[in-house]
Amino acid sequence: MVRQKIAREIAADVLVVGGGGAAARAALSAKQAGADVRLAVKAEWQKSGSTATAFSELLSIAAAIGHGDERDHPEIHYEDTMKSGEGFIDPELVWGLAHEMPERIFSLIELGLNFDKQPNGKLVQGMSDFAVYPRTCRVNGVTARHILTVLAKRLKELEVPVDEHMMIFELLTHGGGKVAGALGWDRLAREIVLYRVPAVILACGGAHGIYKHGVGTPEMTGDGYAMAHKLGLPLVNMEFVQIGPASLFPSVTLLSGPVWKTNPILTNGSGRDIFHGVLPDGITAERVYQEKVFPFSVSNESFYLDTSIQRESEANPAPGGGVWYEKRPGTDDLIEATMPKTKRVLKSKGIDLDEDKFEVGLISQCNNGGVQILNMDGETAVAGLYAAGETAGGLRGPDRPGGNSLAEGQVFGHTSGTAAARYSRRQRGATSVKEQALAKLDGYNTWLANCAAGSGSAAEAASSLRDMMHRNCLVIRSEQRLAEAWSFLTQLEEALLDGDLGVAGEDDFAAAIELHHMIITAKAIVMSARERKESRSCHYREDFPEKNDREWKKSIRVKNVNGRMATEFYHWPSPRRTVRR
């Protein structure tokens, strides 16, 4: 194994880790605030991650601007969000989100984003789950991608450097627990890069890539969660993972709520209806479909759809491991009215909805948990370290209103970018980080030497991890499933850290680090899910099927305590705002 060394050094004021909407907004706002900014993107810029690849019939961004209904205003947005997550989210962050979001919408318009408009020139705004009034703004069904495009264009005009295929894998700190820099792995040049920066913004998305199937792209392996955890920062609400149905092949296409209103036919590998013998008296498949929204929830009868897909995928799967989907005869007009975009996207991937039967399974879509942020600036407990977008925790609990995810990225991308630029100005002339970087690399090189005689591969182990999470931590959870997952993960981590896995080449080095990030993130999810002995929204324990507000209306935080992962209960402050109607 080649001994790793620092091949290049890059100095900047602010390093933004990630390539989606939150990261791009953070980089732009930091640049506009006068900072020298670098953007480190793990894969290809504008073609990877959630923002660049997101799609659904209802994909949109929420802002209470009153164009859909003049009665809507930020206080109502705040109240709707609190109703969906009170007891699991920070009221002050939610208040700031709701009140900052209208300005973010108009900022995107100034950048050139052409939201869908009404004949009177106002924006089209749609209804979403948990909303009292229509609040979501959209751009032709691919809102997220259009947001990223206009932000990227402006970053290019301002000549903000984008380091593509750069995996940031270690955050560096100096005296007093302040950020001093980061280590990155250039995946093309196969070399270590040292970033000398006083401020880092983690906006690198979630961890869809730790499941067998997920939206986005596979490099989303929880790097932000893992790096923050290693620094001792709490991860909150990690058990709440949004999971739901999608077509599986040739690539994942999310099947959102409107798709199910067409009452499709779902069968297992033997051709039997997946609801056979499952639905209670008085509950029909049509009713299940009518109730369905994305993601999975125990809150209504759509519960039977996702759980039946998982059970049949385990007991009697179609050849690819899912269940069969085909349109119901006589629904052509309904399909055109409710899911035209999905039909076109499936067609572009080689699936003809009018003729073909195709496989559907459950996929990971969004992590509602994340690195706990302390305030509207996206600050963490480590000075100079910020988090935004899906990496940040505190705004999403078991549920969240539709459109809030993109909104969070724009609001906290902006506030964290501005705050990081302001902070970095006070840190210029700080001590060198080279010594800390070399010490970290010495630790990695010692580990690499121990791996010389190992067998197996990190890539194979990562594939096994994804299979295990799909099997044991999908929508159906239980003590037996989660205990099996925990045992697997702890044994795999021990094997990795003890050098039992072979790490022989440059690519193996990067894959092994990524695998460790996957393990840390998966352990945080499994430990939290195992701790929460109730069922609530997207978290279903078949051994504890009832919601229990008396004992469980509280968050779980995962912390690094002397090198060991532990949980603690966390109670958010009570809302102090009075909402005016």
TrEMBL record:
Superkingdom = Bacteria
> What positions does the domain Fumarate reductase/succinate dehydrogenase flavoprotein-like C-terminal occupy?
464-558
Keywords tagged on the record: Flavoprotein, Oxidoreductase
- Gene Ontology CC: plasma membrane
What's an example of a GO molecular-function annotation for this chain?
succinate dehydrogenase activity
**One Pfam family, short name:** FAD_binding_2
Task: Say if the entry is tagged with keyword Metal-binding.
Answer: no
In this protein, which residues make up the domain named FAD-dependent oxidoreductase 2 FAD-binding? 13-406
Any one GO biological process: anaerobic respiration
Would the keyword Membrane be found if you checked this record's keyword annotation? no
Cited PANTHER family: SUCCINATE DEHYDROGENASE 2 FLAVOPROTEIN SUBUNIT, SUCCINATE DEHYDROGENASE [UBIQUINONE] FLAVOPROTEIN SUBUNIT, MITOCHONDRIAL
Protein name (database record):
FAD-binding protein
